[in-house]
Amino acid sequence: MSRGESPQRSRSSQRSRRSRRSQSPSTSRRVLVLNQSALPRSQGGGTRHVELFGRLSRWSHRIVAGNRNYTTRERFSSRSPAFVTVPVPNYESNGPGRVLNWLTYAVGATVAGLRSGRYDVVYASSPPLLTPLAGWLLARLRRVPLVVEIRDLWPRSMVELGYLADGSRTHRMLVALERFVYRSADAIVAVADGWQDHFAAFGVRPERVVLISNGADPVDFVATVSRDKARAELGADGFVAVYAGAHGPANGLDLILDAAGELPGCTFVLVGDGLDKARLVTRAGEEAIGNVRFLPAVPKEQLANVFVAADVGLHTLAQAELFKEALSPNKLYDYLAAGLPVVTNVGGELERRLVEAGCAVRGSAEPGEPSLPSLVAALRDLGDRGADERARMGARGREYVERHVSRSIMATRLEALLDDVSSR
């Protein structure tokens, strides 16, 4: 700032320079994306950012991720200049090791961001909250806008799941950090509709929040093997239910093992990895639950060859009021994009929308407490024309994804947001 220049004029000049730079036809606009758990398509797990930013037409991007798969915790690497990794340590539980993992990524991502050349926007995704803190620092140093993406309401979700004591010193510190992150962002991206009251409690105006849901595209879920071959490779026959995703404490997978015990005539396929997988495998063995198949995590392009063997996709979560308020689960949209009817145990608004769309079935349990076995059995027992009805439900699911939560639709929304914040 020159001597005598007001802070307001300085900020206006910076915005004007950013606007002229972003509008220059000879300059490609670039966005730096920080997400510790981002994964390339070659990995099994969350590929939200690769799929979204890879669909932008007016922006180039660089994603900075940790070099360990969030679910398997195994190291991976990338040779793409659009996807770089920073080393992070392993951890085995929700304790000090995981906190060190977050801190290491935040420091490494900041260094990687400083070495990434010019960019016009910083896009930082939480959890953990340390990632948008690193994004804030980079945005301040480079004098560019900061967009903060909220994929989970930390620390509220940790309190509701019993990992953190409400009102504890750690909780108060995290809430203070959460408030700082919200107030520092030029815009906030929410992945689920229904968090407006939460943001408003921190003084965030509704117009600062943009919904960019998780989603999927049906073209990414076209099987290359026959249904019979896929089922033979799984050793599965009869009615097959599949779960594909993280195997962690929050995912409620004991409910699937409970359902498998109650429905011995069905085969349950669990695809993925996580902190709870070893325990789940041990439990299935000790209780002689023989109709469960555990598969490793697979890249998304291979999921279609698993889904083609199934009759229904399963979505489970540990029960928490937060999940009933708002939810945007990638795995559920993957099922729908693949043409599978779905069942979910979360109840609330998400279940209502899917039932109204005709791609999910409501169980016979009390409202708000759906029984997973009853949901699966309801789809299995549709009668003589059950396969045809499930196919119709699957077709309605694909249509729902294409119309409401496709990656292409969300990428268009994301590009409009980047255009807006870079030209302010």
TrEMBL record:
Enumerate the spans annotated as Glycosyl transferase family domain: 231-398
Any idea where the Glycosyltransferase subfamily 4-like N-terminal domain is?
A: 47-215
Q: Where is the signal peptide?
A: none
Composition bias (Basic residues) maps to 12-21
Q: What keywords are annotated for this sequence in UniProt?
A: Glycosyltransferase, Transferase
- Entry GO MF terms: hexosyltransferase activity
Give positions of region: Disordered: 1-46
- What's a Pfam family in this record? Glyco_trans_4_4
Q: Looking at the record's lineage, which domain of life comes first?
A: Bacteria
The record's Gene3D superfamilies line, in alphabetical order, gives: Glycogen Phosphorylase B (3.40.50.2000)
Protein name per UniProt:
Glycosyltransferase involved in cell wall biosynthesis
